[in-house]
């Protein structure tokens, strides 16, 4: 493809300049003299997009010609982050474009820095989908990501008086140059209504779904380039609008305002991303969103199949559909509906095809996060799907009765319908039954799925259960975010192969004892810390010391992630400083970031606790620069890119057994931060890889935590018996951090003393003791940096390239389709 670059898409400086100026004038309608920052950004983006599209059209025709299996990654979230820098990197035109623009007086790096990112995801799950899209393209695996083109992404967080305030994220305000709208590939999606069973004119039993309403879905395609390969895959996100017939019918009745109103209602469907992760609420609009994008995706796959001249029975050979959690699990029933009702495929054959098509990734064990839809609600939105689910369930339970002869309680537990109280559809059960493969996202998590979450399914189909440990893309999380480290790695390793083959980073290990290398490593880290300090000053006004230990906890705010355990530790340090002249303490800067779901009152109070402690500690002259606490507002992909490279200590302190994997932990390790963490999620594997001597492990194991909980857990006893813990909790609940308002943090402190579901008090002593060992280790800067280098060098397993290779081989049965240049 690249060889055929024409005058429009060539990558030499002259061609880039021509293209940029053309777009500025003919797309933006501006000359350089009057162009705004946004005009220039858009013209640059269009210049880059042209080059993506040239490769994209080659990739599409190659995929069509070869007819290999395409991965369809279905996800309600894709948290892709800013695009410009990443596309330049993957197209390998950063330097050429930087030079070209510099000659026109334009600073490319500033354009990259100021890009506003689409926040089309909540956190880990959405970001994982984005890393996977990068690795799929880099691995040249034919793939399409399917999701929702939300008009409003995750809210923009500000902090007012220490409290989180949510602001709307109207990310499309200045235009989105990366996506191309394709109204011609629009599809109609039915919702609500009822079904009619009838016999057709040739005597077949048929079902007709008579919907209450229909909406029109149209795709926005974002090209996703692989790193220095010609493959460009597609991220296809769907937007809902009113159907035309629908409008006409109302117009004809003369109800103009009514018609406009219905149009608005249709558009509501993809208006906003639900900002709560890990807590499911049975909201009708959310179910409609899920069905909407899945119905669009499957219709689109059928269109592609037809375009390739293949019959519908070839569906599983043409597509491997991966369900990113249960959010798209309705796809199982939808594919069945399409095959049975519309293509008249017999049930058994349709079911076999469906199972061969789908695979399901679980991302959580938390009971409150498992999706269940009240039966009545489900029926009112998807009446036909409920019938199909009943039939899937009837056949499945008959199979289970034979397999588990006489064990009706097991059949009850396996059912797709929860009948223990109010009746619900269990989406995880639907996903399990309808998939040929089910996986967790880290070793421990996959074990717990088999033993605790879905033991009855595991007993029935042990061969379906698998584990694929998450990974993150080293392109964004090292090369783009940490250019200093990237340059050092390339120099030390002699080439850039590590960028596409991350395990080669192991080659840094032999430099871990080389004083000159360590010195350069430290300079890189220090530079990154200075940039983060500048960002912190700009955003919060707090001045932090770049020579202090940067101790970072960034992730969604949740009780199970235990940000308040970190606060207890900080308060303990503060208490030591005030009561003992603890002058030998290592100066630390504690950096927090993360969003709380707007309706999650406790999590918002945890933010207030962090900022309240920060206010007191930061302004106490006695503390000097031994302790600084900052809450950096609006943690996002862009913020992450500034934070991970500057971090020295990565806080991964969830209660063991609660964090499915974590992926921030991997970004930190790759950037040479040491982890202080529990034996939870992928922390366990990170500890294994980097070596226990280079990892600060603390707290109970998942087993120990469960045993303690079962044998009777009394947090108040721990409070009574540990003077430092008591002092910390008493300072908080006595109102010391809330101007005497003793009631403010009571919901948190009372809970810790009485229930403490996430067992902070049980892990507190171990955590504080471990933090003391961190201090001791940090005092020896050479030794600390050595450990940091080893963390990076031994993070080879945590590239999403490895995760994708495992999915491709074990669940998708698909492989790379590289561009040989020979057609
Ligand atoms: C569900 C129903 C209704 C509304 C919202 C939701 C919803 C939305 C987002 C439920 C869950 C999420 C996100 C979950 C998530 O991010 N999980 C994280 O996934 C990461 C990638 O596998 C893991 O590393 C984390 O451990 C896990 O918490």
Key structural traits:
823 residues; alpha/beta; Rossmann fold; 6-stranded parallel sheet; 14% strand; binds ligand 26Q; pyridoxal phosphate binding; glycosyltransferase; Pyridoxal_P_attach_site; Glyco_trans_35
Ligand inventory: ligand 26Q
The N- and C-terminal alpha carbons lie at a distance of 9 Å
What Rg do the Cα atoms give? 27 Å
Low-confidence runs of at least 5 consecutive residues: none
Largest sheet: 10 strands, mixed
Number of strands: 23
- Mean pLDDT over the residues: 96
CATH fold type of the largest domain? Rossmann fold
Number of spatially distinct domains: 3
Strand content: 5-15%
Tally of individual helices? 33
3D shape: globular
- The CATH superfamily name of the largest domain is Glycogen Phosphorylase B
Which structural class should the secondary elements be placed in? alpha/beta
Q: Report the CATH C-level class of the largest domain.
A: Alpha Beta
CATH architecture of the largest domain: 3-Layer(aba) Sandwich
């Amino acid at each position: 493809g690249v060889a055929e670059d024409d005058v429009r898409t060539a990558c030499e400086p002259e061609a880039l300049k021509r293209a940029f100026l053309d777009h500025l004038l003919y797309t933006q309608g501006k000359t350089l003299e009057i162009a705004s920052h946004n005009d220039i950004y858009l013209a640059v983006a269009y210049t880059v997009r042209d080059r993506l599209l040239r490769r994209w059209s080659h990739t599409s025709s190659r995929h069509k010609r070869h007819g290999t299996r395409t991965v369809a990654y279905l996800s309600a979230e894709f948290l892709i982050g800013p695009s410009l820098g990443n596309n330049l990197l993957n197209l390998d035109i950063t330097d050429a474009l930087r030079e070209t623009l510099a000659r026109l007086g334009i600073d490319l790096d500033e354009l990259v820095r100021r890009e506003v990112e689409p926040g089309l995801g909540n956190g880990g799950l959405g970001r994982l989908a984005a890393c996977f899209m990068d690795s799929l393209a880099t691995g040249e695996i034919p793939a399409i990501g399917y999701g929702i083109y939300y008009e409003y992404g995750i809210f923009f967080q500000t902090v007012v008086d220490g409290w989180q305030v949510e602001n709307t994220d109207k990310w499309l305000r200045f235009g989105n140059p990366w996506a191309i709208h394709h109204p011609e590939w629009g599809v109609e999606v039915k919702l609500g209504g009822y079904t009619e069973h009838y016999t057709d004119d040739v005597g077949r039993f048929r079902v007709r779904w008579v919907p209450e309403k229909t909406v029109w879905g149209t795709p926005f395609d974002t090209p996703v380039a692989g790193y220095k390969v010609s493959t460009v895959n597609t991220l296809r996100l769907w937007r809902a609008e009113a159907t035309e017939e629908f409008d006409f019918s109302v117009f004809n009745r003369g109800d103009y305002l009514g018609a406009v109103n219905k149009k608005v209602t249709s558009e509501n469907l993809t208006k906003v991303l639900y900002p709560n992760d890990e807590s499911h609420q049975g909201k009708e609009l959310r179910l409609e969103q899920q069905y909407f994008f899945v119905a669009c995706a499957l219709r689109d796959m059928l269109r592609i199949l037809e375009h390739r001249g293949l019959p519908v029975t070839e569906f599983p050979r043409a597509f491997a559909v991966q369900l990113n959690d249960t959010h798209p699990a309705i796809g199982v029933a939808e594919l069945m509906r399409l095959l049975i009702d519309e293509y008249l495929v017999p049930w058994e054959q349709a079911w076999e095809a469906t199972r061969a098509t789908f695979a399901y990734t679980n991302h959580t064990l938390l009971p409150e996060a498992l999706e269940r839809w009240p039966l009545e609600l489900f029926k009112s939105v998807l009446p036909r799907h409920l019938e199909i689910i009943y039939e899937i369930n009837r056949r499945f339970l008959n199979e289970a009765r034979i397999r588990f002869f006489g064990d009706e309680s097991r059949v009850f537990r396996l059912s797709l319908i929860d009948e223990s109280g109010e009746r619900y559809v269990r989406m995880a059960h639907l996903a399990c039954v309808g998939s040929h493969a089910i996986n967790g996202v880290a070793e421990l998590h996959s074990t717990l799925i088999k033993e605790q979450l879905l033991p009855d399914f595991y007993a029935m189909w042990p061969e379906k259960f698998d584990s694929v440990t998450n990974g993150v893309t080293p392109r964004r999380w090292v090369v783009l975010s940490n250019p200093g480290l990237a340059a050092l790695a390339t120099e030390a390793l002699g080439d850039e192969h590590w960028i596409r083959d991350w395990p080669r980073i192991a080659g840094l290990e032999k430099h871990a004892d080389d004083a000159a290398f360590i010195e350069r490593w430290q300079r890189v880290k220090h530079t990154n810390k200075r940039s983060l300090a500048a960002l912190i000053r700009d955003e919060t006004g707090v001045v932090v010391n770049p020579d202090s230990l940067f101790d970072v906890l960034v992730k969604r705010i949740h009780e199970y992630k235990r940000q308040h355990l970190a606060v207890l530790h900080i308060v303990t340090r503060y208490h030591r400083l005030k009561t003992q002249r603890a002058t030998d303490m290592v100066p630390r800067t504690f950096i927090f970031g993360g969003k709380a779901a707007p309706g999650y009152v406790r999590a918002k109070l945890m933010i207030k606790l962090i900022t309240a402690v920060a206010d007191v500690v930061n302004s106490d002259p006695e503390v000097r620069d031994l302790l600084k606490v900052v809450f950096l507002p609006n943690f996002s992909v862009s913020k992450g890119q500034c934070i991970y490279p500057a971090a020295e200590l990565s806080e991964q302190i969830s209660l063991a057994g609660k964090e499915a994997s974590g992926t921030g932990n991997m970004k930190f390790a790759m950037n040479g931060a040491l982890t202080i963490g529990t034996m939870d999620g992928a922390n366990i594997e990170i500890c294994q890889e980097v070596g226990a001597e280079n990892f600060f492990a603390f707290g109970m194991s998942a087993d120990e935590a469960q045993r303690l909980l079962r044998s009777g857990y009394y947090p108040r006893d721990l409070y009574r018996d540990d003077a430092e813990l008591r002092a910390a909790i008493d300072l908080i609940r006595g109102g010391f951090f809330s101007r005497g308002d003793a009631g403010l943090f009571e919901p948190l402190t009372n809970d810790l003393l009485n229930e403490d579901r996430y067992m902070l008090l049980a892990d507190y002593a171990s955590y504080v003791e471990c933090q003391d060992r961190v201090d001791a280790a940090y005092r020896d800067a050479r030794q600390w940096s050595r450990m940091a280098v080893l963390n990076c060098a031994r993070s080879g397993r945590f590239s999403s390239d490895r995760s994708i290779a495992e999915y491709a081989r074990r669940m998708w049965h698909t492989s790379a389709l590289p561009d040989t240049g020979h057609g």
